[in-house]
Amino acid sequence: MKSILHQPLDRVGTDSVKWDGLERWFHVKSDVLPLWVADIDIRTAPSISEALAARAATGEFGYTMFAKEAQEAVSSWYGRRHGLDITPEHVLFSSGVVPGLTHIVEALTKEGDGIVIQSPVYPPFHELVTGLKRVVRDAPLKQVDGKYEMDFDALEHAMRQAKLFLLCSPHNPVGRVWTESELARVVELARTYDVIIVADEIHADLTYPSQHHTAINRLDDRVITVSAPSKAFNIAGLFASYIICPDDAWRKRIIQVQNKHHVLPTPFANTAIIAAYTDVRAERWLDQLTAELEEQATYVVERLNAELPRLTCFMPEASYLLWIDFAALGLEPEARKKWLHEEVRVFLSPGVPFGASASTFERLNFGTSRTIVDEALGRIKTHSDGKAFV
Is 303 in contact with 377 (CB distance < 8 Å)? Predict the structure, then answer.
């Protein structure tokens, strides 16, 4: 089978946020390589494109409910891929993982309640908590022997002051796939302090073949899960996400908030979920993609370690995001951004929005062709060779 990741795909001029957004939003030059926002420079699985084309050919695009077939597709997928028995009626549509998380926090907590996060973490975790006038209770991850781990003392302290915990699993940006024993400890603490666990598992289906993702609601059937096929199948622009909420009372409260915000799927969201989760061709495609991503991650990390050993990068265990510490360059965040954009000519996701401990970091998206990866790494090396590292 041909490579999925390394087939050229020119996205310039398609109103791509990743590619065309740089000039429109950030006013950077057109030769700057975008390795930032989390989507991949690939076509989705052909079977999904076929299903969407067939849906478009019907010519019917009226207001649409969340299809029972889509709920059943999610249930089937979790049964096959994650060993979970999901009741289809427990699956709610969401117009994105971040809106889903936001609606859950709004529904199940009140202003002033503590919400636990584990920085460095995906910036909307911080933003939705403060935007809803809840209080961030941070339990920062810690680095141990070149790897990020949960700080359970910090987590316990945060949970004592919290109502809800936003768990990122696998974790963005550090790339950890949490072990079953780590998640069991999370469940134990949440039960002790009566904290609701809400798990963002959007990167779960991009777990590498050498790793194993444990869906946390295998360990506690009251956990609320928010996910989507969007990262795994590169269909983020279809806004086809969902919430799995087994608790009847919680689900009713979430639905009330969703109704207030007029949450409805497009016809294409239903079609994409069904095609992604029920067509065996899409599943085979995904298996190939995850293998290619692990190979690409290994390649990038090995090159950075060999050619830029004073930078610290953390080998991911899922997805296509690499967390790199640029502290050795001795540049403040704004100076580093200027250097990356104007001299190196690469655009990464700056660390500051991920948390206070991340000011020296950048997140690099290697979900693109090897040609672009090589060009980006070459630029970083060339312009780092002349820098006076601290």
Answer: yes
- Helices 370-385, 280-307: axis angle to 10 degrees equals 20
Enter the CATH code of domain 17-45+282-383. 3.90.1150.10
Partners of 322 in the beta sheet? 364
Dist CA 321 CA 179 (whole Å): 19
Tokens of 192: 């002790």
DSSP per residue over 181-219, as a string?
HHHHHHHHHHHHHT-EEEEE-TTGGGB-TTS----GGGT
Amino acid at 27: H
Q: In what helix (H) or strand (E) does residue 115 lie, and over which residues does it extend?
A: strand 114-117
Same-fold call for 17-45+282-383 versus 60-279: no
Residue boundaries of the structural domains of the chain: 17-45+282-383, 60-279
Q: CA–CA distance from 371 to each of 8, 113, 231, 327, 348 (Å)?
A: 9, 48, 22, 27, 17
Q: For the whole model, what pTM was predicted?
A: 0.96
Closest CA to 77 of 229, 214, 209, 185: 229
User: What is the percentage of the chain residues whose pLDDT exceeds 90?
Assistant: 96
- Preceding peptide of 170 cis, ω within 30°: yes
Angle value at C-alpha 171, between 166 and 175, nearest 5 degrees: 170
Burial (CB count within 10 angstroms: exposed 0-12, middle 13-18, buried 19+), residue 222: middle
The tokens describing 291, both together, are 């293998």
CATH architecture for the domain at 60-279: 3-Layer(aba) Sandwich (3.40)
β-pair type (164-168, 196-200): parallel
Side-chain-side CA neighbours of residue 307 (13 Å): 16
Q: What is the mean pLDDT of the chain?
A: 96
Give the model's confidence band at 167: pLDDT under 50 very low, under 70 low, under 90 confident, else very high: very high
What are the φ and ψ backbone dihedral angles of 365, each rounded to 5 degrees? -95, 110
pLDDT classification of 388: cutoffs 50, 70, 90: low
Distances (CA, A) of 305 to 144, 301, 336, 367, 368: 18, 6, 20, 19, 20
* pLDDT tens-digit readout, 141-154: 999 998 999 999 99
